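User: I'm putting together a small comparison set for a docking exercise, and I want a reference complex before I start. The sequence is below, and the ligand is 4AD. Could you produce the 3D structure with the ligand included, as structure tokens?
Assistant: Of course. I'll restate your input first, then give the structure tokens for the complex.
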Amino acid sequence: MLVKKLKETYESLNEQEVVLQGWVRTNRKGKGLGFIALNDGTTFSNIQVVYLEGLENFDEVSKISLGSAIEVTGKVVVTPEAKQPFEIQATKVSVLGLCEKDYPLQKQRMGFEKMREIPHVRPRANTYYAMFRLRSVLSMAIHTFFQDRGFVYVHTPEITGNDAEGAGECFTVTTRSDDKYEKDFFGKHAQLTVSGQLHVEPFALTYRNVYTFGPTFRAENSNTIRHASEFWMIEPELAFADLADDMDCIEEMIKYCINYCLEKAPEEMAFFEKMIDHDCINRVTKVANSTFRRMTYTEAIEHLEKAKGQFENNDIFWGMDLQSEHERYICEKIVDGPVFLIDYPKEIKAFYMRVNEDNKTVAACDLLVPYVGELVGGSQREERYDVLTQKMADLEIPQETLQWYCDLRRFGGCKHSGFGLGFDRMLMYLSGVQNIRDVQPYPRTPRNLVF
Ligand code: 4AD
Ligand code: MG
């Protein structure tokens, strides 16, 4: 029986026999009896298995090491006066796989850094155990949110022939040891995608509302706590939508995901609150019930100018690319919550963003949140063929490889907008876990590829 099912039905199973499999989280022997905290992976909290001296292999059971896989046959006993609502009184305990002495997860807590060296066992440590279920729950939240609203899920390619969008450095995909890409597998230079956006836009001009959700790759050599070389991104694209519609969608999605995770992963969220970020549930609940502020880049620069001197980089001027410390100042000190920064100078944003009337700024929005900084980046897309191609020329982006993208503007193009949500950063935001390496099962960052 799965422990999850047992927890839901234990009252009706009182005094009945069940068979459970799982892993030993703790095993303590008392006088004439012992206790095993068993976890079978289906719920966050363990259940208590009690074994008495009368048990045939009592000595063997009392020596079962932490981490071992076992099968327990026993009676469900409802214990209204105890800490846990029920326990299992074992009649038979079999060892399925003993855990050997060099098992790295022992009783004393291990630091995050050490844990990153053992991605094959760390999911069994509480923080990761909670995180990787939350990852699964949040994935479902995303899909449910978009599917309920009729968005079509599009699988954009991981291997691309585009230089994409200048969003970052690309990884080359090759089977050669030289760089003669014309003789390579695809007969041309191929790369791992940095974003599915350009490939998803044609589908928005077909199905109206679409989204991608998959891994993206960036070879930026930025060794920070919020950048990974492989990360997951959700990229919705909405036809007949402007920047305000885009932001409405982002805001609704973030709130939906928060509520979904609080409802579907309550034990995990309670764990994060207890062990990682003591204000986490309150913090995200407040966000779910708030209205996100919208502020222009120009206003943000005014705030930053007033705070000059407080930053590592104090060279504040209109036109600068905001660094993480500046973004955090705006959302943590000025707003104290999520804030959309909009209308960025066109020079510091991607070529496809729609140029505003002022001809200086673009219809872009970055959602900044406390602790994490940039959580979402979005924009209204430039739908005017001439403006788009002129901009590409100005930025020296070769038009031939992106002619298909430009052509969308000639083949029934329309106003449209979209955004990218950093999935891993959303997990950091929900849990309060500070390093992206601790929200991904197998993090990939510069000079770090464990397994
Ligand atoms: O702002 P970015 O680069 O936007 C795009 O890629 C657009 N094509 C999105 C779109 O409009 N469809 O990335 C979007 C989000 C960021 O806000 C951030 O949350 C996350 O992706 N992100 C990263 N997360 C982890 N590691 C990295 N190296 C990241 N780079 C961006
Ligand atoms: Mg961005």
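Residues 122-438 form a domain with the BirA Bifunctional Protein; domain 2 fold (CATH 3.30.930.10). The longest helix spans residues 126-148.
User: Thanks, that's exactly what I needed.
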